[in-house]
Structures are given as structure tokens and as C-alpha cells.
Amino acid sequence: MNQAVIYARVSTKEQQKEGFSIPSQLKLLHEYADKKCISIIKEFTESETAKKIGRTEFNNLIDYLKANKQIKIILVEKTDRLTRNFNDYVLIDQIVNELDIEVHLVKEGEVLSKYAKSHTKLIHSIKVALAKNFIDNLSEETSKGMLEKASQGFYPSKAPYGYKNNTQTKLIEADEQKSKIVQRAYELYASGLFSIQMIRDQLYREGFIFRNSTPKASVSSLHKILTNQFYTGYFIFKGVHRIGHHPPLISMSLFKEVQYQLKKLNKPDYSKREIAFAGLIKCGHCGNLITGDIKKGKYIYYRCTHSKQKCPDKYIREEKLDDQFASIVKSFSITKEQFEWMVKGLKEINKVKDCEVKERTKQITLEIEKWNLRLSKLYEDKLEGVIDERFYKNKARELRDKQYEVEAKLSNLTRVSFENVEMAIQLLDFAKDAYKFFSSIEKFEQAKFIKTISSNCFVKDGQVHLELKKPFLLLSK
User: Fold this and answer.
1) CA–CA gap between residue 315 and residue 309 (Å, rounded)
2) What does the alpha-carbon distance between residue 474 and residue 416 come to, in Å, rounded to a whole number?
3) Measuring CA to CA, which residue among 470, 451, 358, 455 is closest to residue 126?
4) Of the given ranges (59-73, 75-89, 165-179, 285-299), which has the lowest mean pLDDT?
5) Is 345 within a domain?
6) Which residues in 328-439 belong to E strands, given as ranges?
7) Fewer CB near the terminus (10 Å): N or C of the chain?
8) Average confidence (pLDDT) over 372-380
9) Is residue 390 part of a domain?
């Protein structure tokens, strides 16, 4: 009889306490094992989010398989129970190939192994990308909450130096000692008689202690303070200027005077309009940016600035760079036929997801009804005089907040299910036309294109090395 281990996971401790997720996973996996005549040797369960790298039981699972090589099967409910980050995906792929392990994704009806068809592996890779996107989307929802808080004038993050976060009132207040250091720093710099280095020493001479661990402020810390508009009572969040509820430490006129003094020391801004790939590529030997030169009025060469060391690479022609960029773009471009069958596979995956969303929607709807009943009961207690008006208002606000939170989960759940697949299809559609599009646009637009698909670009020994962002790297592989 084949031997296997089980891996089951829930995202939060709360889900584990509720007792509906891990037990249901274990029941499903044991039933599957009985049906397939598979012997369960060990179970690994945990309640940690799969977006994290280094989950305890996940790591224990990997170590156990390496120590017990006779076990050749991992049973797991579905892809996003096992992994929602690319690091763990790579680790599982390595285990599958090196130890000849099979991963049975029971709910999805798939078996991953080193002998699996390329189509199965690709669809699984896309599922991992979708699971990662789900995590990213939840992060976006958190950002929306922060944006709403900012729109009301409340800074949704840690207060900068000179202020403190009041945990009781949830407001930002001036720190009695640190605020004086901020005010004095602005006064000194506005005079035009002090550099930042000189202000650092002057503050210390006047008895101002920046922090107990670092009595003298660093130059970078002071520069950050002197360029932060937060101290005027305003703040910038997501690129938008907002009027804050925190008390200002300096006037707007003082802030502007300091910015004027800072600009007097700035170097001129030299434009590189004629060099398309300037500021995009780094030297693979020393990490400096590659600069461009125009020879004979028409030939463009790129080279290292050699500001750190004398690097062995000399020049590389723009045409050679362009050819290599085009080759990299071509590596993740797909044919029309590939696009069609991948989209078909994604839509099949979405059918399974829809069932899961309906089940979760049912659970959340019941939870919303629970809060409605509690609100109704609370209102009846008020009418009957069991509770007073003040208690009713406070408790009703608390219950409504919880109700809104659950309703937001429901709204997000139904939207995310649809958006994940739509985003994946848009990515595939982009890849289908990427090479043709790249070849048809001007050099400056090509540079923007390269920045969009990559996180790092460097040249070493005449060869372009592009670190593609994960979706494009996935397609390229």
C-alpha cells in the first residue's frame, strides 16, 4: 500500500478555533486515501497564512519527507492550502522532482509529479499566481481602509519623529521633548547659516538629545525631518495632500523657507532625453548605472560610469541592447493557440472556485443575519427600558462596526473570485501580443515597457540580464 502524509492549513487562528476548516480538510483527505488505498503515516496541520515564507509545519513536512524517502505522496485539499507564495512553490517543485514525490490536490482532481504533463504543470503554476494575487488583493483591501482613514484627516500609519501615537484616543499628539527638537532644527536651517551637519552638532550643544540610543541625530534623519510637510499640519498619503487632525509644530511659511534653503544646495537637473535607456540599466560588475554617449551624432553606446571601480566591460551598442531586450520579451510571448487553451483551463479552475465562493458566501450571510438579530434584540431591550439610551448607542455602534466588517468580506469575496481570473486572462492576452507590440514602438517607449515587466536590469560581459517580475517570469519558464 502506498504511504502518504497529509498537509492541512487554515489562514487564521480564529478559523482553527471555529473548527470547521481543518477537520473538514482532514475528513476529505482521509476519505480520498481510503478510496485510493493509500496509507496515512502522518498529519501536518497549522493555522498560518500561506503568504508567509517559513511556515513551521510546512517546513516540518519538507524535513520529514527528506528523512523518510519511502513516503511518496502528499495529500492536500487544493493549491492555496499548500502555497500562496512563489518561494514555497519552487521548494515543492524541487521536492517533487528530487524525491519523486506526488502531490495530490484532491478537490482539484490533479496529481503533480515529475512525470505530469506540461499542461498540468502550467495550469498549477497559474493557480499559484492566482493564489498570490488573492493575497495581494487582501492587502489592497487593507490599503483601502487606510485610504479611507486618510481621507478623514487621520494619518493611517506610525507618527513621524516629534509626535506619538496615543493608543487610547487613536490620535497623533505632539511629543513634548521631541517636538522641540523638530522646531529648533527648522529655525536653525531657515536662518541659512547652518548646514544639516552643523545643525546636528548645534542641537547637541544646546542640550537636545535626539534619542537615548543615539544622542546626536544622523544627517539623514534630520534631512527627513526638514523635508516632511507633516509638521505643518498637513500630510501626503497615496500622492494626495490632506489636512490632518494632528497639531502642527511649525508654520507653513517656515517650512517653505527651509525648502528654499535646501534647493539652493541642489545640483542642476541634467536631462538625458536623447538617451532612451539611460537610468534603466546597471553595470553587472559594480552596480553603477550605465550611461549613454552619442558618437558621430547618430551612434549610441552605453558604458559604466566607473565611479566605484574600473570595470572590464567597455561599450555596448544600443542596437545590441535592443536585440537582447526583444529576445527576452519573446521568451514570455505565447501563441494564439496557447492563449486559447490556457484561458480554457483558467475558466475550468474558476468553476471550482465559484463553488467554494458560494459555500463561503453562505457562511458569511449567516454571520450577517446573526448581527442583525443582535441589533434587533438590542433595540427591543431599549424600547422595554432594559437598557438606557447611552448603553444602546455604544453597543449598537459596536455591533454595526462588526456587521459592516462582515459585509465588506462578503463584497470582497464575490468580487475577488471574478477579478482573479480576469486578471490572469489579461496577463495572458498581454503576453500574446507582447513581442509584436515591443517591436513596433519607439526606443523611449521600449524603455518604459522594460521597466514595467522587470524589477532589475543589468549588463555584464556584453549580455543583458533582466529580472522579470513574477507573472512574466512564470510565463517565460
Assistant:
1) 16
2) 21
3) 470
4) 75-89
5) yes
6) none
7) N
8) 82
9) no
Question: What cell numbers appear for 196 in the block?
Answer: 544639516
In the three-class reduction of DSSP (H, G, I as helix; E, B as strand; rest coil), residue 431 is classed as helix
CA distances from 362 to 274, 349, 412 (A): 59, 21, 14
Q: Which residues 6+ apart lie within 8 Å of 417 measured at CB?
A: 350, 353, 354, 357
Q: 0.85 cut: is pTM over it?
A: no
Nearest residue to 324 via CA among 456, 450, 473 = 450
| Alpha-carbon span 374 to 367, nearest angstrom | 11
Instruction: Give the domain range for residue 257.
Output: 163-264
Is 82 a domain residue?
A: yes
User: Within this chain, do residues 223 and 331 fall inside the same structural domain, yes or no?
Assistant: no
Looking at the fold, whether 119 and 249 belong to one and the same domain comes out as: no
Sequence letter at residue 376: S
Query: Are residues 292 and 432 both part of a single domain?
Result: yes
Q: At residue 315, does pLDDT exceed 60?
A: yes
Count of the separate structural domains present in the chain: 3
Residue 136 sits in a domain whose CATH number is: 3.40.50.1390
Helices (H), 19-103: 22-35, 56-67, 79-82, 86-98
